[in-house]
Amino acid sequence: IYILGSDKPLRDLRLLVTAGPTWESIDPVRVITNRSSGKMGFEIARMAARLGAEVTLIAGPTCLRPPFFIKEYVSIESAQQMFEETMKRFESVDGVIMAAAVADYTPALKSSSKLKKSEERLSIELIKTKDILEELGRKKSKQILVGFAVETEELETYAEQKLRKKNLDMIVANEVQAMGSDQNTVTIIKRDGSKKRVGPDAKDRIALAILDELAHLWRGS
Ligand code: CTP
Ligand code: CA
């Protein structure tokens, strides 16, 4: 692959990576979240830093330790916090890889005291969170935008729709079975319609393949 040909192929690339799930508070002890270990995003951040990129990692709650050699590690909880921390830095980066599993909905009311159980049924009203990637897609100037898509069916069709809707340069279609695992199989889809299937392979090697495609886009080759 391209990036193996040089020493620090991503030198001078300022890259923002998001990873992990978000936590949406119901009350002080309960949250709504997504099944995401954060491993894929952390591997991308770790490999990108090794390849010379200046990496900022914005991560939701995970059991993982921040990778060495990244420039900045920002720990957040909610989708709203991830939105704010991402937006703050967008102008000063060359690319964003949104590997985070952002919650689509958050409780309309967050109770400041613990809810006590009573009725047999309980409904919680949820409101939509901001779509971070879609907002970046509207704002982008020269930045390269990479999204992820996890689906249970019609993986590539839905992924391509998200690529267009969010004005992305590339989307990584991810199989649900990968969640929590150290292995992954992905299809990397670009704006020009090209598709590349990678894996099953360890997540660090999948990360390398994604960064290789990013390097091509960045260098315009
Ligand atoms: N994403 C985001 N902000 C959100 C929701 C998702 O930035 N509030 C990003 C994810 O990080 C991912 C991409 O959008 O890179 C696609 O996420 P996905 O959940 O697959 O798609 P959605 O657009 O949320 O649609 P749905 O969940 O209904 O399939
Ligand atoms: Ca979603």
TrEMBL record:
Cofactor binding mode, per the note?
Binds 1 FMN per subunit.
Q: Which residues cross the membrane?
A: none
Question: What highest taxon heads this organism's lineage?
Answer: Bacteria
Q: Which GO terms describe its biological process?
A: coenzyme A biosynthetic process; pantothenate catabolic process
Needed cofactors: FMN; Mg(2+)
Q: Name one GO cellular component term.
A: phosphopantothenoylcysteine decarboxylase complex
Which pathway is recorded for this entry? Cofactor biosynthesis; coenzyme A biosynthesis; CoA from (R)-pantothenate: step 3/5; Cofactor biosynthesis; coenzyme A biosynthesis; CoA from (R)-pantothenate: step 2/5
Tell me which UniProt keywords the record has, alphabetically.
Decarboxylase, Flavoprotein, FMN, Ligase, Lyase, Magnesium, Metal-binding, Multifunctional enzyme
Which residue intervals define the domain DNA/pantothenate metabolism flavoprotein C-terminal in the entry? 11-216
Catalytic activity annotation: N-[(R)-4-phosphopantothenoyl]-L-cysteine + H(+) = (R)-4'-phosphopantetheine + CO2; (R)-4'-phosphopantothenate + L-cysteine + CTP = N-[(R)-4-phosphopantothenoyl]-L-cysteine + CMP + diphosphate + H(+)
Name the Enzyme Commission number(s) assigned to this protein.
4.1.1.36, 6.3.2.5
Which family, according to UniProt? In the C-terminal section; belongs to the PPC synthetase family.
Q: By what name is this protein known? A: Coenzyme A biosynthesis bifunctional protein CoaBC
The lineage, from the top, is: Bacteria, Thermotogati, Thermotogota, Thermotogae, Thermotogales
Gene it is expressed from = coaBC
Query: Which section of the whole protein is represented?
Result: 173 to 393 of 393
